[in-house]
C-alpha cells in the first residue's frame, strides 16, 4: 500500500534524505523511528505530495504521490507532526469541514472518538491547549475510517492516559486491517502495534527488521547484589558495570554459566535478570550501535 523507492531529496550535500526505501504492505504497521532531524518528516512530506523528490519515487496504493496526489490520498488519514488549525472556529465546525471535504457525512465514528478522547466540540480551537488540539487532530484522522494512515508523532502533547487511549486506538485499527506508517518517539506505541521497524539516521535507512527479531535481539543482564562491598575490577574479562557499592550488572556473552562459576567464591545475596528495554535498544540504534 505504501512504497518508497530510492527517494532522494538534497537540501545540502549532508542534509535531506538519500536513497530511502520503505514498504508497508496492506494491513501492516511499520514503525518509522530515528532521532530528530533524521529525515522522518521529510520522507512523510514526500508521501503527502508536499515535496518533489530529486530522485526515486513514493506511492500509495499504486498512485504516485507527486504526480497523482489526489488519487494517492483518496483513502488516506494523515496526522502531521506540526498541525496548523484554522482560527475562529470550533472543534465541531472544523470536524464538519473535514468530513465535507472527504465526502463523509456520517458522524457516528466521529462522535465515538469525541467521547473516547473526551473532547468538547464547542470549544474554539484558539482556546485549546496543545493536548486538546492533538486530540482534535487524531479524531480528524480516524473519523472517516481510512484504509491507510500516516502518523507523525501522534502522541505529541497527550497526557499518559490519552497516550494509552491512542495506543488502544492504533491496536484496533491494526486489527481492522488498516495500513499504518507510524513515526513516533513513544516506544510503547511502536512496541504495541508495529510489525516491522525501519530506523533512519542522517537521512538514510540504516536498518529494517521485524519486531520479533528486535525482541530476540534484546539483551538480558544479570544484576548481582553482594552481602559486602565489591568492585567490578574483581571480575576482569567480563562485561560488567558497577551499579552500586554492593551491586554489579553483568552483560552475558552467550552462556551465563561462566558468570555463575566466577560468582561462586563470592558472598552473593541476590541475582536478578533484567531484560533490555525497547527504549534502550532504540537509543543504541540512534547512536549507531545497532546494525
From TrEMBL:
Membrane topology qualifier: Peripheral membrane protein
SMART domains: AAA (SM00382)
Top-rank lineage group of the source organism: Bacteria
InterPro entries reported for this sequence: AAA+_ATPase, ABC_transporter-like_ATP-bd, ABC_transporter-like_CS, ABC_transporter_ATP-binding, P-loop_NTPase
GO cellular component labels: plasma membrane
Keywords: Antibiotic resistance, ATP-binding, Nucleotide-binding, Transport
MF terms (GO), sorted A to Z: ATP binding; ATP hydrolysis activity
Recorded family membership: Belongs to the ABC transporter superfamily.
Protein name per UniProt: ABC transporter, ATP-binding protein
